[in-house]
Amino acid sequence: MAIDRHGRRIDYLRISVTDRCNLRCVYCMPPGGIEWKAHEEILTFEEIERFARIAAEEGISKIRLTGGEPLVRLGIVDHIRRLHETTGIEAIALTTNATLLARYAEDLADAGLKRINISLDTLDPDVYSRITRGGKLEDVLEGIEAAFRVGMDPVKINVVVVRSLEQDLAGFARMTLERPVHIRFIEYMPVGDVGAHSCASSDTDGWTADDHVPTDEILERLTTEGAALGFGELVPVERDNAPGGWGPASYYRFAGAPGTLGMISPLSHHFCSECNRLRLTADGGLRTCLFSDDEIDVRSVLRGGSDEDVRALIHRALAEKPESHNQQLGTVRHMSEIGG
Ligand code: SAM
Ligand code: SF4
Questions:
Q1: 21 lines ligand 1 (CB under 6 A)
Q2: Which residue of 14, 24, 25, 279 sits with most ligand 1 atoms within 8 Å of its CB, as the best mutation to test the pocket?
Q3: What is the dihedral of CA 285, 291, 293, 294, to 10 degrees?
């Protein structure tokens, strides 16, 4: 079992398999994208699988693959299949923008993938195109249908809430009345270039403090709007009945609804004391905190060291993981490079 120096059990590893993406979401990437890392800087699947095996021996049991967009990396399906064969890894999840999911859903399910998190911040095609700088909402909706069709479970939709985007949160809530989908509202986070611009502008990737919407406010809005729209009463879901989560979301549902609404508040109620994760960037940096740019260079050890050397880096990460993010704003790396 992996325990860090603050006594937290660390059993969850997020792996960014690529820094590349087919979208340019305003809060994640600058308009021109970021300069992609050279091919040789990116960990090979073999290197990732070796790291995952050693991490599993040290107590990691859950892996989430993210990016960039994980589905743009060739060979991702077989990579997932091989990770499932790693002793000690109990579950693998994928975070995706779902634009390519309709194409891959069946193969992913066949490779053993069940848990999927889809990022979707609006149900309005024009707003979607603006947020993602050119994405087609239709592709994502087809991806969601495909996920249900092939039996993925849980299907979660991550909605980053940004004040200046004026999102229709009730539209997402309505989806939970119709099917077992788990909508998770996430506070916009100050990661990447912390500029002085609003998200409403498509040519910036900036954060302003005004764009942050605390989840207490989101919950209040959903309660009022849900009542006005006849969705019923919004009630808390006990932790044991929440859709199998690895993170600190608090869940609610409209009474009798098959789906749930989750609140994730990294800023307003930060959950560092429960943090159970490490992150591996696509180019092999091991990060102990989303908000800290301190990274341990795993790549050079994977390329020149023994398993024991790699193990020592994991121990170092456990020893260095900070107690909290201390409300730090901004990071050198963009979210697409870290993986969220
Ligand atoms: N491309 C995939 C996707 O969009 O799901 C995986 C990588 S993306 C970086 C992972 C998650 O980070 C997405 O759910 C995205 O909405 C979220 N994200 C990106 N920038 C963010 C920000 N500044 N604050 C909060 N969440 C953010
Ligand atoms: Fe790409 Fe995901 Fe970032 Fe959007 S949030 S630009 S889909 S990596």
A1: yes
A2: 25
A3: -70
Distance CA 82, CA 223 (A): 44
99 lines ligand 1 (CB under 6 A): no
CA distances from 154 to 13, 164, 202 (A): 19, 30, 32
Let me know if residue 3 belongs to a domain.
no
| Domain of residue 282, residue span | 12-338
Measured from the alpha carbon of residue 159, the closest ligand is 1
Chain segment 22-72, per-residue pLDDT in tens: 999 888 888 777 889 999 999 999 999 999 999 999 999 999 999 999 999
Mutate to test the pocket of ligand 1, among 95, 267, 270, 281 (most ligand atoms within 8 A of CB): 95
- Number of domains observed in the structure of the chain: 1
- CATH number of the domain within which 154 lies: 3.20.20.70
According to the model, what pLDDT value does residue 205 have?
47
Whether the pLDDT of residue 330 is over 90: the answer is no
* Pocket lining for ligand 2, CB < 6 angstroms: 21, 23-25, 28-29, 67-69, 97, 119, 335-336
Determine, yes or no, domain membership for 5. Answer: no
Q: Is the pTM of this model over 0.90?
A: yes
In this structure, is residue 238 part of a structural domain?
yes
Measured from the CA of 339, which atom of ligand 1 is nearest? 9
Name the maximum alpha-carbon separation found in the chain: 62
Number of residues in the chain: 340
Q: What is the pLDDT of residues 222-249, one digit of tens each?
A: 999 999 999 999 999 987 777 877 677 8
